[in-house]
Amino acid sequence: MKFGIVVFPGSNCDRDMQDALQNDLNKEVIMLWHKDEDLSMFTTDDYIVLPGGFSFGDYLRCGAIARFSPMMQSVIAFANKGGKVLGVCNGFQVLCESGLLPGTLLPNGNQQFVCKNVYIKNDSLPKALKIPIAHGDGRYYADDKVLNELEANNQIIFRYTDEFGNLDLSANPNGAIRNIAGICNKERTVFGMMPHPERATTPNLGNLDGVEVFRLFGMN
């Protein structure tokens, strides 16, 4: 399994993601510049990763300009053929802007940039995971029709919880509707999440919970 990490002007978590995948998970990583288009070295067994940061300075809307990069046209085609794609933080925003995932990411409810550890839970995991966040526009929003479809199809992969895995509004760091921290498409090949699992994959940082996130995506 290979991993391609797309680098946009303003990406600032691309090397964090490379280090986590390459050095902590021992994966083959290829860095992809946003102006390039070639994904011929990847198969649908591989992953394309859109990292966090502030692509194109977050002008217009977060991810709105990155969505039109030449590489993103290839990523969209790759995903439409069944290829696996993961977007983290700004990458999640790009996925929503590109239409690969439904909904949008709005400014945080408190109108402030939030940077701290939070807890997130997936129904298949026995415990909540402690994963860092760092974003100013992480409040997931969609209309009731979309939200109900996400619920019905089990597409909500992570919700913000307390440390014991309980849904609690006080544990929601940005006001995301229904405490949503991450979602996937119906085919379960495109994944987006606001928290940063790549910042929790080494004992040097005192946290290995991010490894569980990557394992959930079949990336271990």
From TrEMBL:
Entry-linked InterPro entries: Class_I_gatase-like (IPR029062), PRibForGlyAmidine_synth_PurQ (IPR010075)
GO molecular function: ATP binding; glutaminase activity; phosphoribosylformylglycinamidine synthase activity
Gene3D superfamilies listed in its UniProt record: 3.40.50.880
Keywords attached to this entry: ATP-binding, Cytoplasm, Glutamine amidotransferase, Hydrolase, Ligase, Nucleotide-binding, Purine biosynthesis
GO biological process terms, semicolon-separated: 'de novo' IMP biosynthetic process
Annotated catalytic residues: C89, H196, E198
The EC number(s) this enzyme carries: 6.3.5.3, 3.5.1.2
Pfam families according to UniProt: GATase_5 (PF13507)
Cellular component terms (Gene Ontology): cytoplasm
Function per UniProt: Part of the phosphoribosylformylglycinamidine synthase complex involved in the purines biosynthetic pathway. Catalyzes the ATP-dependent conversion of formylglycinamide ribonucleotide (FGAR) and glutamine to yield formylglycinamidine ribonucleotide (FGAM) and glutamate. The FGAM synthase complex is composed of three subunits. PurQ produces an ammonia molecule by converting glutamine to glutamate. PurL transfers the ammonia molecule to FGAR to form FGAM in an ATP-dependent manner.
PANTHER family: PHOSPHORIBOSYLFORMYLGLYCINAMIDINE SYNTHASE SUBUNIT PURQ (PTHR47552:SF1)
Protein name: Phosphoribosylformylglycinamidine synthase subunit PurQ
Organism per entry: Limnovirga soli
